[in-house]
Amino acid sequence: MMAGRVALAEEVPSRVQPWEKVSVTVGGMLSNNDSSVRMGSGVGVNVDLERSLGLETKTNVFRAESGWRFTENRRHRVDASWFAVHRTGTRDLEFKLDVTNPDGSVTTLSTGTHVSSHLDLDIYEIAYSYSFFQDDRADMAVVGGLYVMPVDFGYSASGLSIAEGSLKFSAPLPVIGYRLDFAIVPKWFVRSGSQLFYVDYNGFTGSLMNFRGAVEYQPLKHVGFGVGFDTLRVNFEGNGSGLPGSDIDGKIEFENRGLQFYAKYIF
Question: Is CATH 2.40.128.100 correct for 26-266?
């Protein structure tokens, strides 16, 4: 009788642990971008890069990430991710633009000046999370991570005179946030999470907000597919000093949002 009970228990599928040990995800984003810059410290003109300088508004972005739950109870997890948004644009200025250079001098770009520009972001993140609540239906975790986000804006203008300038930023940004996943029914999951960063230090002000939400289907034991929404907003402003690794003299605002489609391999 006891043997029969054991055999029956083994035949019943278990949902006690639906949370994968290791996963690798690759996919793409159909994204919309909105960004502006101000060259130089103090009061100046914020330039809308898409409208004024012709930077691409819509982009297709490749994204890769992985996660590893490294303890037996699967509450401790590390994640790593990368994606990049590189855009270029050309435009004849429709207004006069005064640009403050790093040495304090001012360059005036007259109406009709042909300007070429670029804005490149490579976004790397590594994060640790702890699931303070976890059962067969829900996984809720607090997250602490580090973004490394090299930002490079540059322009060159030709006309009666030739001018060029750039803004760069590469300081690491610590973030805190949460992750909330639900196993709705077998093979179907809802994934969500958000991360935040803010600092005001030594002439530098920076903020970052990221939110992600997705619905995921796992038709096979080791394979899943998902579709979701992702938004990332960053705002950096400095006077040439501030955080180690940041010599930004001016202001950069950037927002990337869009639909994400991905495939996941589960170990």
Answer: yes
